[in-house]
Amino acid sequence: MRKIYVLDTNVLLHDPLSLYAFDDNEIIIPSVVLEEIDSKKRLADEIGRNARNISRELDAMRTQGPLHAGVPLPGGGLLKVEMNHRRFVKVQELFGEMTNDNRILAVALNYHMEEQESDDPRPVVLVSKDVLVRVKADVLGIVAQDYLSDRIATDTDQYTGYFTMLVHPSVIDEFYSTRSLNIKSLGLKTTLHPNEFVILRDELGTSKSALLKVTSDGQRLEPLHMSNDPVWGITARNAQQRMALELLLSDDIPLVTLTGRAGTGKTLLTLAAGLLKTEDEHRFKKLLIARPVVPMGKDIGYLPGEKDEKLRPWMQPIYDNLEYLFDTKKAGDLDKILMGMGSIQVEALTYIRGRSIPGQFILIDEAQNLSKHEVKTIVSRVGENSKIVLLGDPEQIDHPYLDSQSNGLTYLVERFKEEGISGHVTLEKGERSRLAQLATEKL
């Protein structure tokens, strides 16, 4: 049965192409949504870009007919701009002032009431990324849901970058003797991806095990190439950190993504690998470190000083890790070291658009706060002989329109898991401290 979808403003600002994601159903855009989009179109960030994009999409549709009467969509559906919020007495009685959100609810409620009176009522669904709008809709008896079309994977299906398998001990013995295994010989029911890791454990219960990696062509399993020697004083403390260092130190994998909770060692391991490749091996001419400027909690406003002074509070987590790696004792020592080296550059992602970055080791921290478009912009900046590493915790998102399944980092992981030039690992065990580990588990 065809449905009627009423779209909230945040759906269009999150994904301007959401108009085409509802197949052959009818899409209703309340007129107040156009006003909200108009108020955002002059912004210089991605919200402003999306507002301009959706404005152009709607303007192009006008050539097919008046939007208030409805225009056909490519998927067989119908798009209509609706002013039907005149009867908003029930909404006003429940929620008081007629805010823009309440006007959108009134449109959905009126459609719902009209459909209930028809001989063949169609379901009316309000689509919003605002949790409270969905709660209000439920109070009014309207079906409401989040916008799900852009979610690349569910929580249970997200790619972790490694796979654990119980095998007969003879298989482990064969690997240690030949240093290679054919994937087909394992009889796996699941598909292994290039550069994915496999942990073989003895099905008979002994401590015998092996850690392997899928070759870049996805055909065979091979041993890890990197030893477990310290990297700038940092040694892998668990299997996932060992996997991460294997990817970070490999010159054949220019794109690496690491996810995991706070304290799992993502940033520290990447900085150590970057310093080794830049300062010791001279594989790259510069170590570029960047992160999005997104506050946790209330924004502290404008900061005084030059660009570097303004960025320092936002980049302090990076400097904390560098102080640990350089083992600085006094305040100001790190600044002197960085000034003397000249090969380490710390920047906000605001300045990366339009650049081409060849021959550098690029670290993008807090990438879970990036949208799909922003991730595309960043990765497409990478020039020849560069390596880019994106880090983040999909459970800690400060962006108002992103979640653990729709953020740019998760999107990148899922899109590139089939590619031989990329690798991913989800770090699980916290190594910062026992207290930090308990905090992530219990709070």
UniProtKB/TrEMBL annotation:
The keyword ATP-binding applies. Keywords: ATP-binding, Nucleotide-binding. The keyword Transferase does not apply. InterPro entries: P-loop_NTPase, PhoH, PhoH2-like, PIN-like_dom_sf, PIN_dom. It holds the Pfam family PIN_4. Residues 3-135 form the PIN domain. In the N-terminal section; belongs to the PINc/VapC protein family. PANTHER family: PIN DOMAIN-CONTAINING PROTEIN, PROTEIN PHOH. This is PhoH family protein.
